[in-house]
Write a structure and sequence with these properties.
Blueprint: E1 6-9, H1 24-35, E2 41-43, E3 48-55, E4 58-65, H2 72-83, E5 90-96, E6 104-108, H3 116-124, E7 132-137, H4 147-151, H5 157-178, H6 182-190
Parallel strand pairs: 1-4, 1-5, 5-7
Antiparallel strand pairs: 2-3, 3-4, 6-7
Helix pairs in contact: 1-5, 2-3, 5-6
């Protein structure tokens, strides 16, 4: 599999959404930017907050779209076109209902699974689904009718601590990801349970 050249963190813009479960993907990118001492800055041409970091011997583009979740594709496509990044060189971090808080999974390709951010990215990339995903577990409310309120709600303290622990473990596996060693990254991350 290819080397990752860009890490995209999905979420909704605005202070009212910052701490909501739907922004778990954005939290991962914001954590990496903080750890790298490189602030994300508003970048109009990418419709989001952007930084470039030299990470584990590789240049890595970081982007948190400032569009709403269901319009994330425009920002991702703009970044890809500008830097000539192919879909299989992308890692998109997003919240995942089907995984418990405190866990995260890498995935290569596949459908959008009902996730509006992924759906829009697939569409904006010409239906190319070959990008990598970092699925940050937020758990499921138990009923499909409760999903919208749940993802737009704030996790409790213990739940947020578990999500943050999983994100920290993701960042520990990222050097393997940017080096293209997906087997090692997956073995480590998939055995972690915060």
């Amino acid at each position: 599999m290819s080397h990752v050249k860009a890490l995209i963190g999905l979420g909704n813009p605005g202070s009212e959404y910052d701490a909501t479960r739907h922004n778990a993907g954005a939290w991962a990118v914001e954590s990496l930017a903080r750890d790298s001492l490189t602030p994300l800055r508003a970048e109009r041409k990418f419709l989001g907050h952007y930084a470039k970091v030299h990470y584990a011997g590789h240049d890595l583009h970081l982007l948190v779209p400032s569009t709403y979740m269901n319009r994330s594709g425009k920002a991702v496509a703009a970044l890809c076109q500008f830097f000539k990044i192919s879909p299989d060189e992308l890692l998109v971090a997003h919240d995942e209902l089907d995984i418990a808080p405190g866990t995260a999974r890498y995935k290569h390709g596949g459908g959008h699974g009902g996730h509006n951010g992924l759906r829009d990215i697939v569409s904006a990339l010409g239906n190319d689904k070959s990008f990598h995903r970092l699925r940050v577990g937020i758990g499921h409310p138990g009923s499909a009718k409760q999903v919208t309120n749940y993802v737009l709600g704030r996790p409790g303290k213990a739940e947020r601590t578990a999500i943050d622990a999983a994100i920290e473990e993701c960042l520990r596996t990222l050097p393997d990801v940017v080096a293209g060693d997906w087997a090692s990254a997956m073995n480590r991350l998939h055995s972690f349970n915060g």
